[in-house]
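Example 9 (inverse folding). The structure is encoded as follows.
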């Protein structure tokens, strides 16, 4: 059977393979055709119909339609190794930095916020209360002035 593969860079690869062979055999053929540097078997992920194809599964089990294509993703083994080394070192430094930053950052930020909010809230209720009292006092003054 002929399988059409597409890379993430939209390159198309045609591979003839026996459907009884495993996905790993297909990966080996891709490596042989395209080169070990660009398409190492260990770095290949083949995806068809939203599923990652497992190495030990026969190709026929995935019912790949020759009209459709299989996506080939290649992850570089060197990058993965380089990434794991700094990533194990990286958490150590940020944990210390974030600990000191967290202590210093939220403390000053939290203090100014509460005093600002209560001040307007407290200022609003006395204003209507004093207005009501003023009206009552004015009314009382006017009545007493007329009564005298």
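The amino acid assigned to each position is listed next.
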């Amino acid at each position: 059977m002929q399988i059409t593969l597409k890379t993430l860079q939209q390159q198309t690869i045609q591979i003839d393979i026996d459907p009884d062979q495993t996905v790993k055999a297909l990966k080996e053929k891709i490596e042989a055709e395209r080169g070990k540097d660009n398409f190492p078997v260990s770095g290949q992920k083949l995806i068809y119909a939203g599923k990652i194809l497992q190495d030990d599964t026969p190709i026929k089990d995935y019912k790949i339609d020759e009209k459709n294509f299989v996506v080939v993703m290649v992850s570089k083994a060197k990058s993965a190794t380089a990434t794991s080394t700094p990533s194990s070192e990286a958490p150590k430094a940020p944990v210390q930095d974030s600990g000191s930053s967290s202590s210093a950052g939220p403390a000053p930020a939290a203090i100014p916020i509460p005093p600002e909010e209560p001040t307007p809230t407290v200022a609003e209720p006395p204003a209507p209360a004093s207005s009501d009292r003023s009206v009552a006092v004015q009314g009382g003054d006017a009545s007493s002035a007329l009564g005298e």
